Amino acid sequence: MANTAPEPSEGLPPAAAPKPGGIAARAMAGKAPAYLATLNDAQREAVEAIDGPVLVLAGAGTGKTKVLTTRLAHIINTGRARPSNILAVTFTNKAAREMKTRIGELVGHVVEGMTWLGTFHSIGVKILRRHAELVDLRSNFTILDTDDQIRLLKQVLKAADIDDKRWPARQLASVIDNWKNRGLRPDDVPDADGFVFADGMAVRLYSAYRERLKTLNAVDFGDLLLECLTLFRDHPDILGEYQNRFAYMLVDEYQDTNVAQYLWLRLLAQGRGNIACVGDDDQSIYGWRGAEVDNILRFETDFPGARVVRLEENYRSTQNILAAASALISHNEGRLGKTLHAASTEDGEPVHVRGVWDAEDEARLVTDEIESLHGKGHLLSEIAVQVRASFQMREFEDRFIMLGLPYRVIGGPRFYERQEIRDAIAYLQVVANPDHDVKFQRIINVPKRSIGERSVAIIVDAARTRGLPLYRAAAELVETDEIRGQARASLA
Ligand SMILES: Nc1ncnc2c1ncn2[C@@H]1O[C@H](COP(=O)(O)OP(=O)(O)OP(=O)(O)O)[C@@H](O)[C@H]1O
Ligand SMILES: [Mg+2]
Predict the structure, then answer these.
(1) Assigned domain for 14 exists
(2) What digits encode the pLDDT tens for the residues 211-231?
(3) Domain that holds residue 440
(4) DSSP character at residue 195
């Protein structure tokens, strides 16, 4: 068993007496730390209610993230827990970095000890690597990206003799992801759900895929949480260790959690019960990824005695913008309901709504407006165009280029999601670990070097019969006549 023993000082109750003269001691001596003074009353209530479950329910720009970071700083500052005993979860790496910086500003270098601040995925990976053997993996397991996953599923479909033109691998991937997001292993999938793909074969394919993953010592994104859930379910002692370790838990953007993440949080919080979630039921953006606004609506039932704090003062927008937004979202169903009012006393510019025929028309209208503002002396760098989804940027870009209006796209595909970057990383992974079969298959013909599907099939077969990783099988085949011509030359 690897790394299952608790680290000596972890999981213990925090030290009773803070260092004399330290920040914690000063805080405890009754002198309120400066950071509390920057909060409004409701925010301060949410920060100071340290023990027990807390749900901060608030609209956009009301200081939810500020409350969470300040709360974290407050826990550390008052000596309630060591940084390494606090679990803080965000949705994106960017949010995690930002949170770290903001806490750093409040408590200084202590933040470096925050080993459990990160995304659900990064924390899931960390836990899994420590206990990989217990879920049939080795600690150096590979994490597949979407491309790898599709490639593997194609092989699974082929092995089951299913035509992937009629039943595309991509569709199977989304069926499986959906189950994983709901915390379902093959055995847990309700019978009726199996008919969503390939005439009732879905669950069997899911099992086959799972087995392939284990053989390859690999996991996909969904597994990072699902395997953790399996680990916790089958090994209560390990669950207990983490429950004890995480004296305080904090979750940002709680409205975006899916069922698997929710179950994961709930299991961990059953230890100390000190969980604080902040979220906005009106801002759920991951519905397509299985996020359940229900999680937020259910918090009070799941965590009895939870304190619910509402923040209604918005520090980001003018009253006119808030009124327009509120008029729109008041039509949504399944909300807990809240009213926002602007912290600023000025109403600001009125919001204009214009109807247009199509995207091109819209781009024309917007660029006319930009040119007119520009003509009046406004800087282009002060003007932003926001879109709901990146495919909507096209028409704007076309028009900006046509008119010669300089522009900058913010967002777009992220660095690590770009094809060439993922290929380059796959090469490095194969160099570091030649047994990385999945990555080896990704790059064997990238850039194109005449190693076709037939040659790859020969290598895969040879690897399987000889019980070798693909890389070694290929090295052996080069010495024989089994692969010919350009493919053999390229392989060599
Ligand atoms: N009490 C306050 N006094 C002054 N400024 C504040 C206060 N609370 C929050 N702000 C400012 O309001 C802005 C929004 O804060 P924050 O990002 O924490 O809000 P949020 O609710 O997390 O927003 P989102 O809904 O986008 O996640 C920040 O610039 C923050 O510094
Ligand atoms: Mg926020």
Answers:
(1) no
(2) 999 999 999 999 999 999 999
(3) 416-491
(4) G
